[in-house]
Fold this protein.
Amino acid sequence: MSSSAEREAILGRVRDALTHGRRNGMLPAEEKNSAAPYSAEAARVVSATSLPAELAALLTQRIEALGDRVVNCSSLDHAWQIVRQEAREAGHCTGYLEPALAAMLGVKNGEAAWPGGLVVTAATRDVLFDCSFSVTQAACGIAETGSLVFVHGPGRPRLGNIAPPVHYAVLMASDLLPDVVDALQCLAATPAGRQVVWITGSSRTADIEGVLVRGAHGPRSLTVLLVAG
Amino acid sequence: MTRSPNTAPVNVEDFAAHAAADTLRSVRVNCEKKVDVRLRSMADGQIDFAALRQQVADARTLVLARLDHYLEEAEQSLQANGVHVHWAFDAAQACEIVVSICREAGASSVIKGKSMVSEEIELNHALQTAGFDPIETDLGEFVAQLDGDRPSHIVTPIIHKNRTDVARIFARHGVCEYTEDPAELTAAARAWLRPRLREARVGITGANFVVAESGRIVTLSNEGNVRMCANAPDVHIAITGIEKVLARDEDLAAVLKLLPRSASGLHAGVYMHFLSGPRTADDSDGPREMHLVFLDNGRSRLLGTRYHDMLRCIRCAACINVCPVFRSVSGHAYDSVYPGPMGSVLSPLLGSDAARRHYGWLARASSLCGACEEVCPAMIPIQRMLISLRVEEKGVVMRAPGTPPLLAWSLLASMPRLWQFMLAAGRRVGWGVVRWVPVPAIRRWRRGRDLPAWPRQSFRDAFRQRSRAEGDRQ
């Protein structure tokens, strides 16, 4: 383990190098209260819309361009109905449903939600590695990039949207943000200790000859269940 | 820093002359694809590249100017989030720290997300020596590891291999039956690595950025392996350079818009991950222990010098993909973890003093075309730095064989009358004389270059004649 000696040595070298740089004119003189010479707002896409219908359309366009799906749902129940139907058609055995969603839908852990299949709402690492699909809720979406923002914490395990091979992401249309700048403001407001991930499409790689292949380590398919309201 | 530096300077031309034609073709074709996708994503009308790169440059400059302050702030924030912060002066110390954490965790196998810093410190070698089994999970790194090869690019490790190579490697190591289909190969790698991802006690990743104010560690990946390595095992270790700090969460805006486009032509990385600490009492998964190792390894030496701005680099590899020299010689020609333009500046300056002798010549492996500067999202003046390195290296590094003697030229160029005489002689006699000069260095130098045709007249005579003719006409 490093001791404070290494820490002091490194920080000392950094300080000395910067002082030396200022003295010989390589760096500007130090300003004690240096404010950033830019505003993060300037990174915003100029033509960005903030109309909900247009945000949804843009998000859909981005996600479909990545080869993934957006399914418009009239309600949360409708979304869950679609999931169960597809699980039955695909012959899935187990699916993970986030506890918060399960509570809203009135679904119990271990319930036979479709013929030949079980829903799990209590997650451990092994459960998440073994189940065929997961259904998790995004805190918000970023229309500009087609990203879904997930905030982890109680009832929202980190591996829930990465370990299972098929991922359904529930997103309320009212939770759509226009730009990355907005999402970073939310990030800054998210309490420390809550891991956040922005997911843009399903897992992919182009390491072999630049040929795009889906489903590297994360889910090979992502379906966004966009719930109106 | 990497392949044990010997005193002979790196010579990219020699390497390329002996490299397999397949390798060079793979590199050329793959680089062209990458440049293409980058351009398309930058020119889609969604962003203003010039404005965003200015922001990235400003955000990084701000931090580097007071790096000590931001490092201390980052340390406090990280510790408040429950992350153990370690400081490593050099590669050996960094390896020691990681090995000791693995020992305490009782690990046997260790999974690794892609980290160029871990390559820089030769971490896999140290882990193996200490009795651990490091497993690369990034597809390109996995292939390279199986083959006993090294990555040749900081974003696409096997840019120098084609599907036949990967097929042979996988078949030889029992990963799958021989197939050249990239989708089947990727699926085979996924199936092979998944149980190992599940069982490992320790996961090691890099960190693209550390935000000082919030103590968040930011990682970007498209495969998902970095998320797995950071969240599946009991212990997560992140290693990064001391320069990878940003001041606040909002400073990520310009960076997150440019980095995925520059690196892979995507609007956003598939998994942009903002880690803030180990598992809390509320979490049902995640590592119970999280560590961050800040590595110096010569970075503090660049601060306040004419190479200070190189520390702005966000490791997108746009400069590497566009470099005509890189495309012609391939990454391994640089014999360094960091190839191409950014590597030609960093390789001689990081690590030990021996690195300077070994890599100093890389500054000359450039035609100074400036393509790298045009694409750099952090506006790093790479050309200026390469020229500085050349000037500095003049007395230090042995001239690589094949450099023609320039003393004669510099004498001629400083004596105007002699210069004029030589030009007049050349107009009479042509290049004939030079062709016969038995200096091997000049012969070699001429091998890849066409000499211009001698004009009938000198420019001054032609200009005088023309002016007279125009005067007569008037």
User: Anything to note?
Assistant: Chain A touches chain B through 86 residues (CB under 8 Å). The CA atoms of residues 67 and 201 of chain A lie 8 Å apart.
